[in-house]
């Protein structure tokens, strides 16, 4: 299929990059090297795929849209170095790739960018870095610091596991069709060793989620069902604080208290 005739599928968050200056800037940011193990999520019509493929010896791409996957197969016909997987990246087992230094890139479909990030976090030990285009608002939320209005669950979960860097903004005119919002490039580098010792990932998820369930509540009230005020205080955290004023390390401390309490009550 000729990609010019492709009917845009909104449900797949399809906004295709056409601005060559922006495309080159993204490629320069990724800085692909010949032996890198790069996986592109959502290659679409190949805006990033072609320049990436000219730098590396092998490239994996994952595309959910069967027409676009077919068009890529036609357009890159004899190119054995391009491995096209026609599947949903959200269901893909990234352990199925041989290497442990994966570089994941993509202009991500905005409607599923958060679930994809959480899915990828499960494989963080095999991932060297991730460079993504996301809605600017999502990048701002991921990179926000405590005390900032945008600081929340996404900031804490991603900042615990990764170094996060907001790189540059991309205006709507760089895409077809034109989206309604600004986009931005973010680089996420999973930490080789966690910055703070966490006893249990599930407890961390619960504590972070509940702390932000109602932003205006104090930690004492938001976590009433999970932790006693006295335990919070003993851990060195003022229970009168709101979640938005706590650091990532405070959430780790609270999650560890909760986990130990659960174990001891068994
Ligand atoms: N990379 C292309 C570009 O920059 O022009 C296309 C980017 S477009 C924003 C997102 C792409 O992701 C589309 O090709 C879409 O079909 C694909 N996509 C959407 N959901 C997906 C999923 N769950 N798994 C894999 N690909 C997906």
Structural class per helix/strand content?
alpha/beta
Low-confidence stretches: none
Query: Which fold name is given in CATH as the topology of the largest domain?
Result: Rossmann fold
- The CATH superfamily label of the largest domain reads Vaccinia Virus protein VP39
Tally of separate helices? 10
Mean pLDDT: 95
Looking at the overall shape, the CATH architecture of the largest domain is 3-Layer(aba) Sandwich
Percent of sequence in beta strands = 15-25%
Number of strands: 9
Sheet with the most strands, sense and barrel status: 7 strands, mixed
List bound small molecules.
Answer: S-adenosylmethionine
Helix content: 25-40%
- Give Rg in angstroms: 21 Å
Characterize the overall form.
Answer: elongated
Short description:
The chain has 266 residues and is α/β, with parallel strands linked by helices. The protein has 10 helices and 9 strands.
Could you walk me through the main structural features you see in this protein, from its secondary elements to its overall organization?
- By secondary structure, this protein is of the alpha/beta class.
- The chain has helices at residues 20-30, 49-53, 66-75, 113-121, 136-143, 153-161, 201-211, 219-222, 229-234, 248-264; strands spanning 16-17, 37-41, 59-63, 82-86, 102-107, 127-135, 162-170, 175-176, 183-190.
- The strands form two sheets. Strands 4-3-2-5-6-9-7 form a seven-stranded mixed sheet. Strands 1-8 form a two-stranded antiparallel sheet.
- It is elongated and about 65 Å long.
- The protein starts with 15 loop residues before the first strand and ends with a helix.
């Amino acid at each position: 299929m000729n990609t010019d005739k492709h009917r845009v599928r909104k449900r797949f968050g399809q906004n295709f990059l056409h601005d060559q200056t922006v495309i080159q800037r993204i490629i320069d940011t990724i800085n692909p090297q010949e032996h890198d193990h790069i996986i592109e999520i959502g290659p679409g019509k190949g805006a990033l795929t072609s320049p990436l493929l000219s730098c590396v010896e092998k490239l994996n791409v994952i595309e959910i849209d069967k027409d676009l996957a077919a068009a890529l197969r036609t357009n890159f016909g004899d190119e054995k170095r391009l491995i096209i997987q026609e599947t949903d990246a959200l269901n893909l087992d990234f352990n199925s790739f041989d290497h442990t230094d994966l570089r994941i890139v993509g202009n991500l479909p905005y409607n599923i960018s958060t679930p994809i990030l959480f899915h990828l976090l499960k494989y963080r030990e095999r991932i060297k870095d991730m460079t993504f285009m996301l809605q600017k608002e999502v990048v701002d939320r991921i990179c926000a610091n405590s005390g900032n209005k945008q600081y929340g669950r996404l900031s804490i979960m991603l900042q615990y596991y990764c170094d996060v860097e907001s790189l540059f903004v991309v205006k709507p005119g760089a895409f077809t069709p034109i989206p309604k919002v600004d986009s931005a490039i973010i680089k996420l580098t999973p930490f080789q060793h966690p910055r703070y010792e966490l006893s249990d990932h599930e407890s961390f998820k619960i504590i972070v989620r509940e702390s932000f369930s109602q932003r205006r509540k104090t930690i004492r009230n938001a976590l009433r069902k999970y932790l006693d005020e006295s335990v919070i205080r003993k851990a060195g955290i003022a229970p009168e604080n709101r979640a938005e004023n706590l650091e990532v390390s405070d959430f780790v401390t609270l999650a560890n208290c909760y986990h130990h309490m659960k174990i001891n009550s068994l």
